[in-house]
Amino acid sequence: MTDTSRLIARRRRQDLVFNVAGVVCTLLGIITLGALLVDLLWAGLTRINWQFLTSFPSRNAANAGVLSAWVGSLLLMLVTVSLAVPLGVAAGVYLEEYARKHWITTIIEINIANLAGVPSIIYGLMALGLLVYQFHLGQTLLVGGITLALLILPVVIVATREALRAIPIGIREAAYALGATRWQVIKDHLLPYSAGGIATGTIIAMSRAIGETAPLVTIGALTFIAFLPPSPVQAEFPFVNLRWLNSPFSVLPIQMFNWVSRPTPDFHRNAAAAGLVLILMTLSLNAAAIAIRYRLRRRIKW
Amino acid sequence: MASRVTEPAPREEIRPAASTLMLGRGKRYLKDRLIGSLLFLAALSSVGVTTGIVAILVFESAPFFGHVSLWEFLTDTIWTPLFADPHYGILPLVSGTLVTTGVALAVALPVGTMIAIYLSEYAPFALREIIKPVLELLSAVPTVVYGYFALLFVTPLLQRLFPELPTFSMLSAGIVMGVMIIPYVSSLSEDAMRAVPMLLREGAYALGANKMITSIRVVYPAALSGIGAAYILGISRAIGETMIVAIAAGMQPNFTLNPAQPAATITAYIVQVSMGDLPHGSIGYQSIFAAGLTLFLMTLGFNILGHMLRKRFREAY
To answer: Domains in chain B: how many in total?
Structure first.
């Protein structure tokens, strides 16, 4: 009797210790994240001001800024999204709604799973060899955007497929029963209903892409850019121009990498400040994704 | 009026109407088929990306292997393609990659697994719903920021414990890389553990096991193939990770297994060469594609292994 209760007490203690170990590990992750943020804020917060956001990089740490970098990051994301979303959604729709079980579709599916595991720097090498040196497109915003678009393509495809899969089959059957073709079902019903899910997945993918450094370094994005690409909007007809696509560029992560690699503490403070701006962009993208997902969960009831 | 009724004209009017409807149907279905083919091309483009990657890696590194024998590439222990006395042994870069990956896994696998067990078996529902997205932020932080953190926060911290640690070390880069891949390990492992049927746990409880025994002896083995897939995803992330090691581990190829030393990984070498101004077609330019091909094959092997494990995991219940 006493043996049994002692055994039970020991097992309970054992369980408690294990529970505490689990909490400690979880806290370890969260504390590291906190330390990283505090460290960045500590070093970089005082450096962030209007001058920092509106100045070009400079040899003098105190005069340097991230203007060309954050403009480059935003324009690059514009190219990336406008390439990755149409292509990724089209591929996802095909695989989910059109494809029959066929050896080609099996290959495509295995291929997408594998592409998602290819290191980002390999995409950079591919872009360097193919786009920069075979197609002679140069080290431009367009090439950077294509590279990152291909990098996030698997994520967009998977997000599209999951969003489509969540739509009940009854919606499709009802539309077909009224004589709609497959494309009409997709265009009028499936795409509008899955738009939120696709947007969430795409935004998450963008938050990864905006922090990508390695593939852009590989294609030769510059670190010292003291000018802005030509403006995409203009006063004369047709009001938009695409010359900016052929402009060389820098982005925030590359600017930060450049500053981290320098030995002086002044530049390290600049790096921390650039990191803060970058993290702010990443986190706001993540927050947007969470907000969309939350609204979606509340609104849609099949 | 009557004459108008007997006139064939109204019938003529109906007929074209009927045939335009038919025509419309045909057009609609033609359009449907056309769009289907366009969508198929989009799906096929992902295969084009893979083909492009493999073709470029092979095409650009072929002249390299014409110059350097495969035997030298795989057995020489010095990697100095850009020096006056060039050596082309990939081993120092591979050792750098494996050591940093090893350190990262030594951090991420135990911590990630414990987090997964805690969240799946112990934590109350509300807590889990908060902690999971917060932990996933760890993988959302840009890697260049992690590099900064490793070089300017973790390394000085470690230097207080081990004063002889150099400014650049695989240890510090590896630890931070481990923190970065914790969510890859913990999220997928937790999903796998939660997919284990409740009955198995209840069986264990009925035999008098506590939660810890149940987690370790019942749930963990039952979810092992899913957890294995999570581990492999972590490994393949660590092998391909670039910026953390490029910033914090140094860029000198160093054939050593000692994590307290600086060394270059395959990815760091590619970054280092890309930052310089190498002419297209030079041996240095070709060497980054040879290094990239090696990296691609390493991660491909792990990806295929992970794919096989996930397939088994799906068929388990």
So the answer is: 2
For B29-69, write each residue's pLDDT tens digit. 788 888 888 999 998 888 999 999 999 999 999 999 988 88
**A196 shares a domain with A288:** yes
Report the domain count for chain A. 2
What's the token pair of residue B296? 């691609």
Q: Are residues A167 and A31 in the same domain?
A: no
Residues A283 and A164 in one domain: yes
Taking residues A263-276, what's their average pLDDT? 90
User: Nearest by CB to B39, which of A94, A207, A253?
Assistant: A94
- A111 closest CB neighbour out of B46, B141, B211: B46
Return d(Cα A216, Cα A223) in angstroms, integer.
10
- ipTM for this model: 0.89
At A298, the pLDDT band (50, 70, 90 cuts) reads: low
What Cα–Cα distance (Å) separates residue A224 from each residue in A74, A122, A173, B108?
17, 24, 57, 36
| Global model pTM greater than 0.80 | yes
**A99 and A41 in a common domain:** no
Whole-number Å distance between alpha carbons of B304 and A114: 8
Domain identity same for A183 and A293:
yes
Q: Are residues A103 and A243 in the same domain?
A: yes
Q: What is the CATH number of the domain that holds B252?
A: 1.10.3720.10
- Check CB contact of B169 with chain A, cutoff 8 Å: no
Residue B86 falls inside a structural domain: no
Which range of residues forms the domain containing residue B281?
91-315
pLDDT band at B21 (very low <50, low <70, confident <90, very high): very low
* A35/A42 Cα distance (integer angstroms): 10
Q: Does B185 touch chain A (CB under 8 A)?
A: no
Does residue B77 belong to any structural domain of this protein?
Answer: no
Q: Which residues of chain A does B28 touch, with a Cβ-Cβ cutoff of 8 Å?
A: 181, 184
Residue B104 CB partners (closer than 8 Å, separation 6+): B174, B175, B177, B178, B180, B181, B234, B238, B241
My answer on whether B136 and B229 are in the same domain is: yes
Residues of A in contact with B110 (CB under 8 A): 25
Residue A151 tokens, joined: 């990098």
Q: How far is A232 from chain B (nearest CA, A)?
A: 27
- B239: nearest Cα among B309, B296, B168, B192: B296
Over residues B309-317, the mean pLDDT reads 62
Same domain, B50 and B119: no
* Residues B273, B148 share a domain: yes
**C-beta separation of A142 from A245 below 8 A:** yes
Residue B76 lies in a domain: no
pLDDT tens, residue by residue, B227-249: 988 999 899 999 999 999 999 99
Give one DSSP letter per residue of B95-119, joined into a string: HHHHHHHHHHHHHHHHHHHHHHHII
B93 CB within 8 Å of a chain A CB: no
Residue B230 lies in a domain: yes
Find the domain containing A20 and state its range. Answer: 2-45
Sorting pLDDT into bands at 50, 70 and 90, what band is A236? low
d(CA B111, CA B189): 12
